[in-house]
Amino acid sequence: MSLIELRFFAFAGLVILLYYVLPKKIQWCVLLAASVVFYLTYGWEKLPYLIFSAFIAYVGATRIDSIQQSGESAAVVRKRSRKVLTWCVALISALLVYAKIGTWVIQSVSALFSWERGKTMEAVVALGVSYYTFSLISYLADVYWKKDKAEYNFFRLLLFTIYFPKILQGPISRHKNLGAQLREEHKFSYKEFCFGLQLMVWGYFKKMVIADRLQIFISNVFGNPSGNYGSVLLVTALFSCVQIYCDFSGCMDIVGGFSQILGLKLEDNFERPFFSKSAAEFWRRWHITLGTWFKDYVYMPLAISPRLIKISKKLKEKFGARFAKSIMTVVPLVVVWLFTGLWHNVRLSYLVWAGVWGVIIICTNIFAPEIKKLTNFLHIKTDAPSWKAFQTVRTFLLFAVTRIITQPKDLDATWTIFGKIFTDFGPAALVDGTLFKHGLDGPNFICALVCILILVGVDTMQEKGAKLREKIASYNIVFRWAVYYIAFFAILIFGIYGPGYDAASFVYMQF
Amino acid sequence: MKQKVLNVVKPIVFLVIGVIMFSLIQQVFIPDEPRKVDNVDRTIDGLGYIEHSTVDVFFVGPSNTEYGVSLIRLYKNTGICGYSLGSSAQPIGTAYWLLKDAFIKQNPTVIFLQAGQLFEVPNVYQNTTRWRCVLDNYPLSPFKFEMAKEYDTVPYGTGIMSALFPIIQYHTRWNELTANDFLSHGGEYYSLGEWVSGAVGSTYTTYENIDQMADFLKQDTYITECINGETTTATVATSYVSSQITDYATQSFLRIKELCDENNAELVLYQIPKNVYPQYGNEWTRDMSNQVREFAQNYGLKFLDLQYDTDVGLNWVTDTCDGGTHLNIRGAEKVTDAIGEYLLNNFSVRQQSNPQYDAYAEKYDKIRDVAMLQSETDLQEYLNRISEKRNQWSVFIAASDDYTVGMKPEVYDKFEALGLPLMREGQLRDAYVGVLDRGEAKYEAVSGNKIEYEANLDGISLQLSSAGWYAGSGCTININGRNYAIGGRGLNIVVYDNESGMVIDSVRFDTCSAENTSYLNNGYSNEFLRAYEKKICF
Question: What is the pTM of this model?
Answer without folding.
Answer: 0.80
